[in-house]
Amino acid sequence: MAKTQDFTKTMQDMMASFPVDASAFQDAFKTSAAMTEKLAKVALEAAEKSTEISSKWAKDTFAKVGDLSKAKAEPTDYTKAVTDFASQAAEMATENLAAFAEVAKKVQMETVELMLAAGKDLSEETTAAVKKATADVTTAAKKAAAAAK
């Protein structure tokens, strides 16, 4: 019977002729992890600031409701209290929504800066990796050509 040829040794020799630099993958992973850490920091800071704004808004509103709920001597005082509360609530809403907008703007700016920096770093790393891979392949090809002679 015909015996099937074992290509294991041939494949091992071929793979050894074209070495893969694992450091490129490690560097890419490290860069990705650093980017994730920076983005998480931006997101956590934004969440913290948003929570502070929401908490302050709620406390201020509760204080105003406390003033609104106090007993009044005259019926017209209730009308004035409700009008004052509505006015103050609208003012607080405007201030707090502006504060949320500032948080969003800051997150957007920091994210764009991180993405631009990451793009620059990635471009530099890719260029270096391609140059190194080209040199490695050229060297391996020269060795293979010399061995074939």
TrEMBL record:
InterPro entries per UniProt: Phasin
Name of one Pfam family that matches: Phasin_2
Residue intervals of the Phasin domain: 23-115
Protein name as annotated: Phasin domain-containing protein
